[in-house]
Amino acid sequence: MQGDVAVSRRGSAAVLTAAGSGTRLGARVPKALVELGGVPLVLRAARGLAEAGCLDALVVTVPAAELGAFAALFPGGHVPGTTLAVAVVPGGATRQASVAAGLAALPAEVDVVLVHDAARCLTPPGTVRAVEAAVRGGHRAVVPALPVTDTVKRVGPADATGAEPVTATVDRASLRAVQTPQGFDRSLLEAAHVAGASRAGDEAAAASDDAGLVEALGEQVWVVPGDERALKITTPHDLAIAELLLSDRG
Ligand SMILES: Nc1ccn([C@@H]2O[C@H](COP(=O)(O)OP(=O)(O)OP(=O)(O)O)[C@@H](O)[C@H]2O)c(=O)n1
Ligand SMILES: C[C@](O)(CO)[C@H](O)COP(=O)(O)O
Questions:
Q1: Is 98 in the pocket of ligand 2 (CB under 6 A)?
Q2: Which phi-psi region, left, alpha or beta, contains residue 217 (left: φ > 0; alpha: ψ -120 to 50)?
Q3: N vs C: which end of the chain shows fewer Cβ within 10 Å?
Q4: What are the pLDDT digits (tens) for 88-109?
Q5: Which residues lie closer than 8 Å to 151 by C-beta, 6 or more apart?
Q6: 2 pLDDT tier (thresholds 50, 70, 90)
Q7: Rounded to 5 degrees, what are φ and ψ at 32?
Q8: How far apart are the C-alpha atoms of 13 and 131, rounded to whole Å?
């Protein structure tokens, strides 16, 4: 924990998930080490969090076999060029397990936690600040999200040709596509991970986001505006889109 921490504001930190392999991207290195504009995704995401200026500490969860390669991106245990302190820890078999590992490594003083994907490395600092401020403002679980613009159909099991029967058209007015960082009161997020711990080892059962674990506790989750730049880089197509966004920004 760095700097003075006021009594009324004990500290905000982020867990940056970067322990995935990136199967769908298909690179030779773990996805978070893939470069976008010459900068690894994990470093770009960490810089975005640091630039937000509202965080006191950062925990990055990484593939256990690559601990050294990831730690080398944060010389002196800081996000380069900033005073934001970084701890690099091994992640788990699922994103949920990786977040749990990151939570366990947070400094004791932290009372607000943001969970962010390295794969969403172009998220603007303003989105980070908005999520942190919403939690500080009293909403104990906050997710950034965008309205869904496609028409969305529910389908049943495919027939022999592989075609799927449509069973319903979902009212998209009430749908939101959820991004990261997701922000939480620390005690609520820890309780949600304890309650959902039995799901963490199995990709099919694991929660795909942290808000889902909080919802499973019966607690209210709130949505604030997301940003198109916070897209998740999952496939080579996404990486190409991100390169375009970067050149547009430049
Ligand atoms: N065991 C895991 C799996 C995922 N993640 C992180 O969670 C975020 C979202 O996951 P995704 O983009 O789906 O990454 P991968 O699991 O690496 O992708 P794939 O499913 O294509 O292998 C990423 O920042 C990823 O590094 C993680 O920390 N630990
Ligand atoms: C957390 C997340 O990025 C919010 O959209 C998403 O749920 C991660 O899902 P994935 O299955 O790990 O890609």
A1: no
A2: alpha
A3: C
A4: 999 999 999 999 999 999 999 9
A5: 169, 172
A6: very low
A7: -65, -15
A8: 12
Which is nearest to 242 in space by CA: 58, 118, 135?
118
If we measure between CA atoms, which residue out of 216, 19, 224 comes closest to residue 130?
Answer: 224
Question: What is the 31 CA–ligand 1 centroid distance (Å)?
Answer: 8
Dist. CA 209 → ligand 2 center (Å) = 6
Q: For the chain, what's the residue count?
A: 250
Q: Where are the domains of the chain?
A: 12-144+178-249
- Domain boundaries 12-144+178-249, corresponding CATH code: 3.90.550.10
Task: Reply yes or no on whether the pLDDT at 187 is more than 90.
Answer: yes
Which residue lies with its CA nearest to atom 11 of ligand 2? 208
CB of 182 within 6 A of ligand 1: the answer is: no
Q: Which ligand is nearest to the CA of 204?
A: 2
The CA dihedral of 35, 36, 42, 43, to the nearest 10 degrees, is: 100
**pLDDT value, residue 3:** 40
Q: What are phi and psi of 218, to 5 degrees?
A: 85, 15
The predicted complex's ipTM stands at 0.98
